Amino acid sequence: MTALTASEDLSDDLQSVIFDFLGSDSGSSFDGRTTPPEKAIGRQRSGEKLSMADLRFVKSLGSGDIGSVYLAEVKRSSGGFLVAAAKVMDKRELAARDKEGRARAEREILEDLDHPFLPRLYGSAEDGRWSVLLTEFCPGGDLHILRQLQPLKRFDEASVRFYVSEVVVAMEYMHVRGIIYRDLKPENVLIGSDGHVMLTDFDLSLKSSSSSSPAFAGSPTSDITSAVSCLAPAISCFHRRLRWPRFRRRRTLPEFMSEPVNVRSNSFVGTHEYLAPEIVSGEGHGSAVDWWTLGVFMFELLYGFTPFTGESNHLWNNLKQSMKMRHVTDFDMMTLANIVARGVVFPKEPTVSDAAKDLIRGLLAKDPDRRLGATLGAPVIKRHRFFDGVNWALIRCVSPPHVPPAFKTVDFSKDVYDDSGLDMPVEFY
């Protein structure tokens, strides 16, 4: 999928710095164990300030618009090293491209996150040229690569329910914190060592000056556990089962409703195939765009492609003439035209349940005011029949459909781009 802001390669200077950090050692000192970084550098909300001398970059993991990510060894105060994902940004390039605000916003958002499905900022380091953010390393790669490994390059419905439900919980938390994600796509959903998701890449996210003040609304239910709002699921799977009375009256329990997030934007940002109609048309947008992207995300996991991918039609030319986008391809313009004017069409194959299709239709409503979740937030999405049987309070206790193999020691003395030592054809972030 084409991002609106094109990724750029690392400068030669940064490459030389990375290789300088590699040094002349014969191999990596990483022992293959995924020791939680917080044990060595602390889980402080602001992240610990480290020296560049504490870092050793050992492998390229990927690149984005404002920086590149490396697998890095972080020197432990007790001796030895631990592994982390290091996002390296060239401060001169950020200034030249007017991207300093995006880098600063991502840092502030990472500092604010405290949720099992979202990354924590473990630490940072910088000098006169480079700025580095250290977050948790996810050895399972991302959902885009994992989808490529599935039969027919798509997930079964049970797997989709698992991944979508965890994404809903993560975005619900962000909305409560006043954050609009704006960049949901399989490439940005990582798989942790336990098989659960972790959303990443927040440089396109938008944060309100103040967190949302969640309203409370009653929800009649006959099962207390089903109504728990899973903003930060942390209930142990090993507690003794509570004994509830066999007969109990229906009661009304409070639910968090954080929508809409108190911030609006007219920015044209995101990945083409995931853009909401209100972004394409330039009408201004709010948190409802995240629920649109959830619909596109769910469709892609089920069918293996996005619902509005550019095809030959007569709409895109008018749209292109009315919008000043010199760097947007005709294919992308057709995609944008489809987003604005074409309804979602479900293929005959594979067979997908009516509940899944109904949820996607609700999320892909063109009018953001009528979009599922736009006004009542995640609780109304959670109550959709597609999620029947999901215990939101114990969502972390569900067995994932895929658990990555234990991360093994790799000979990092090889070229930084040599992936031949990996057991699986996945990208690491």
TrEMBL record:
Keyword set, alphabetical order: ATP-binding, Kinase, Nucleotide-binding, Serine/threonine-protein kinase, Transferase
Name of the featured protein: non-specific serine/threonine protein kinase
Record Gene3D superfamilies: Phosphorylase Kinase, domain 1, Transferase(Phosphotransferase) domain 1
Keyword Nucleotide-binding: yes
Classification of source organism: Eukaryota, Viridiplantae, Streptophyta, Embryophyta, Tracheophyta
Pfam families, A to Z: Pkinase
Protein kinase domain span: 55-387
Similarity section: Belongs to the protein kinase superfamily. AGC Ser/Thr protein kinase family.
Catalytic reaction equation(s): L-seryl-[protein] + ATP = O-phospho-L-seryl-[protein] + ADP + H(+); L-threonyl-[protein] + ATP = O-phospho-L-threonyl-[protein] + ADP + H(+)
EC nos: 2.7.11.1
GO MF entries: ATP binding; protein serine/threonine kinase activity
